Predict the structure of Alcohol dehydrogenase-like C-terminal domain-containing protein.
Amino acid sequence: MNEGSKKLSHSMLCQQLGYTTKDLVYMAHLLVPFGGLRDIKLEPGETVVICPATGGFSGAGVQIAAAMGCKVIAMGRDEKELARLKEFEENRLPSAAVEAVKITHDEKKDTAHCCRYIAERAGWRWPYWVSLYAAGVVTVGNILLNTETNSIILMRRKAVRLRKELNRPELQFVFNSKDEIDMSMTTVLSRGIVRPVRMLFGTPILLLLATYMSFVFGLLYLLFTTLTSLYISTYH
């Protein structure tokens, strides 16, 4: 403990500072979401989405984020709790920007509502296009923004860079064996193809599960491809 600091105790907080036990429990309840918001380095004026906002710690997170001057989008399933939380924050902090968004108890219903909203305004094809655009943006973002974190790959890249910078071709990565160094791209590809096949036929349980799943997906494919012709020709 640093010099000049004092150890806080229940008696000191209640008797000298005037806090009640209820106040201490409430402050302890706020510490968890406060630490989480500090970890993500949330700054005043930024927008944060808290979901589910109707829980204990997450509801306290809405209060802390609003007190910090952030714009809060509170999402939850309990509509009454969301309304109470929004009204409480606006009454206590008139400048608080809290938006409540209700989600249902079923993820499929939430997705269906979004798709129906898009289809009613842009056509039935657009829910699929929106999904494709979103997946494309996420994929491109992952390719461009993600960084390599595998230590072996990073060390191998560093060894290659040092060989070029220091002009020392004898430098090798410690995990590299002579066979791996001399492997060509064809050898790497053939090894990558042979290993899964060997594992498939060398492990009976894996072969059984793979056969079962291929049969199930085959039936599903037949169902999708014959559904239209079946209802047109038979159940018309």
Q: What stands out?
A: The first helix runs from residue 10 to 16. The longest strand covers residues 71-76.
